[in-house]
Specification:
Layout lengths: L4 H6 L14 H10 L6 H11 L13 H10 L6 E7 L5 E6 L5 E9 L2 E5 L3 E3 L14 E4 L2 H16 L5 E6 L9 H12 L11 E5 L3 H10 L4 E5 L5 H7 L2 H4 L2 H15 L3 E7 L7 H11 L4 E7 L13 H13 L4 E3 L13 H6 L6
Parallel strand pairs: 4-7, 7-8, 8-9, 9-10, 10-11, 11-12
Antiparallel strand pairs: 1-2, 2-3, 3-4, 5-6
Helix pairs in contact: 2-3, 5-6, 7-10, 11-12
Amino acid sequence: MEQTKSSRQTEKKESVKPSIYSMELDELKSWLKEHGEKSFRAGQIFDWLYIKRVTAFEDMTNLSKNLRELLAEHFVLTTLKTAIQQTSQDGTMKFLFELHDGYTIETVLMKHEYGNSVCVTTQVGCRIGCTFCASTLGGLKRNLEAGEIVAQVVKVQKALDEFGERVSSVVIMGIGEPFDNFDEMLSFLKIINHDDGLNIGARHITVSTSGIIPKIYQFADEKLQINFAISLHAPNTEIRSRLMPINRAYKLPELMKAVQYYIDKTGRRVSFEYGLFGGVNDQIEHAEELANLVKNVKCHINLIPVNYVPERDYVRTPKEQIFRFEKVLKNRGVNVTIRREQGHDIDAACGQLRAKERKEETR
């Protein structure tokens, strides 16, 4: 049986109140009715949270004192403490945020010609165990509540407010496996997409998974217009199992079947993220094999020159080899691009800043 938001929240320690940012608008309307308040107040609360972006319930001045006290009694207005902020020469900003329990997470602001994109984190650590990723060092500590994911976007938006700019797109590709925290991730999507929330268009939101197959089917059945990406990183089962242990549980052929189900169900294409690792998956024969794997799939391949992670042994693929790899795919009719590198002069690899600064979390 699927858990409701309230049942998930009761599993938390009694001393920790849920975040008001975790409430979808309809949920907040129902909660207000249950507590003897008018449901239209939910819209006012959303306005304070996402338009005025206040940091305390007492600042919601068009609400009665009793309602403000009621909200404070049952919820926290999640605020993230900025432990470290790095800024790259290309404008990329990386934040290390501290949570209420002392754990830290990473959020990244990337500046593009088409606007400002925020990459959010869904878990403290990760249990997937990809052998090239700093996020998985030390394993999974806990899932983030939907409100803690929302708060990352709000926090970055407040930083952009100083320049009269706004968050125009969101990618869920930070620390953690989004589909391993599926219900909270789904609530996050609905909250930031809502017209009365942050109002970020569905087609300006991208979620990525390493390949938790049952959740891909569930996500497809939601029929959202969200962009969908798969962390592929290999053209065959052998290499993928070496890079991504999840492939031992969810085999590549079954993953491709789930991807096709998603495409058939939604009519939308899938993006495959393909990190290039020197001498591992970046040879011409790998490009040919990859082209064969996706030849009948409505997709786009995003080639990623990997960032070096000190705790890992992989090396970057030479630039000339990246172009040769891309050319093979293009010649085979595959829709492919090379991801533009950003934040290369700071701790750009996902989880790298957290691993560097908070070693007690990543032991």
